[in-house]
Amino acid sequence: MAIKLYSLGAAEEVTGSKHILEVDGRSYMIDCGAFQGHRSESDEKNRNFDFDHEKLDAVVLTHGHFDHCGLIPLLAKKGYTGNIYATSATRDLANLVVMDSARIQARDAEYLEEQARRKGERFNWKPIYDEQDCIKAMNQFVTVSYKRKMFIGPNVSVEFFDAGHILGSSFAYFTIYEGKPEETRILFTGDLGRKNKSIVRDPSTDFPPPDYIVCESTYGNRKHDQKDYALKALTRIIRETIDKKGKIIMPSFAIERTQEIIYQLHKLVDMKKIPQVPIYVDSPMAVNATVIFQSHPECYDEKVSQAFLVHHKNPFGFNALQMVTSVDESKGLNKKPGPMIILSADGMCEAGRILHHLANNIEDERNTILIVGYMAENTLGRRIFDGEKEVKIMGDIYKVNAKVEKINAFSAHADYEEATEWLKSVDTSRLKKLFLVHGEKDAQEFMTNYLAENGFKNVQSSKYGESYDL
Questions:
Q1: Residue 214: how many CB atoms within 10 A of its CB?
Q2: Which of 68, 84, 118, 298 gives 20 to 30 Å between its CA and that of 28?
Q3: What pTM, to 2 d.p., does this model score?
Q4: Coil, strand, or helix at residue 240?
Q5: Sign for the pseudo-dihedral over CA of 378, 381, 384, 387
Q6: CA–CA distance from 144 to each of 88, 136, 401 (Å)?
Q7: DSSP string over 49-86
Q8: What average pLDDT does the chain have?
Q9: How many CB atoms lie under 10 A from the CB of residue 236?
Q10: Cross-strand pairs, 27
Q11: What pLDDT band is residue 287 in, cutting at 50, 70 and 90?
């Protein structure tokens, strides 16, 4: 039986996760994510995505982040009519994410067409997909609970195990049956989460020993701060900015990161570690995602589940918190005096309302820009993170006078030490090879060496355009 693996994205890069498992000529796609980063470059890469859908037996989605699910509507638009397997929470979050993307593309098309008309220029840019394509794709989803084996093709099954990354995130565990007792087992981590996160459960280790593991490596050369340090740092940053009557601007991913920060702020307010100041979540998608989080307590860590289900305490709502949905409310925040805390999307500062908050606040030295997540190469967030003194926002140059602070403990991705610790806790008695995906080249080189020092010597970084026989 011929089994091959190759990647159409997230190969020596972080975004655009698309991996193909080929079994005797039949293809199974694990994730169908969009590329993110520099706008024109990522748009071109997403637009040029092409795959022979007639060879595709099934799509398996590990979780609902845009860089893992963002091109699913395009796949449906191009003619794929097969099943898309995911957990229930992942389906709900993916629906939110791709519909939001379709609306943003439609608004961008209107704006750019008007700009071109005023300049007397030709305009031919079209959205990659629209809301009808999203609806079509959502009707193709088959939701599967954790630890429920599902046959998705001849002699091929998939089973989901908790990845500990975001709500509903999963490892996709494939078993390929070649005749009793022979079988090949392949585990795709999707995005590997971390132990002791506030809301979701720890990454699973209770699956049968795999022959191959396809593991993410986003933080392959970086370590996270300890959670205790992070909460102390968050407390200090908030107090210092409040004393200056400034604003804390937090670029935050709408899904998982925002809910994690809300949860931690709730705790700090309850413990009276920080004073009562207005806290605004300015992202319609984050507001809707928080509702989805409330709707899926089956994904919660036991401690949060007890509080939510037994004591009826909402982990995502408290008096200081205000959800902002309308454009007028969002604009109004920039006219209000500090102190206040604003969480706003996009998490990498490439689009959305965060751009307006940065433009209005980055030159005021009383304010703080607080980076709490990963910033991909060539993004505005990365330039701010790297300490550039001037940055371009929506075409204009701004001086970075606000204080830039970074806390690395709120990431939903395991760092290289945590990933190695997880691998050591897994039964690797059958492991033949470990593939690294979803990481920049230098991160993967570092992680490969670190894994070798810890007993994992047969490690391969998946390269775009290369196919690997299993």
A1: 27
A2: 298
A3: 0.88
A4: helix
A5: negative
A6: 7, 19, 49
A7: ----GGGEEEEE-----HHHHTTHHHHHHTT--S-EEE
A8: 91
A9: 13
A10: 22, 56
A11: confident
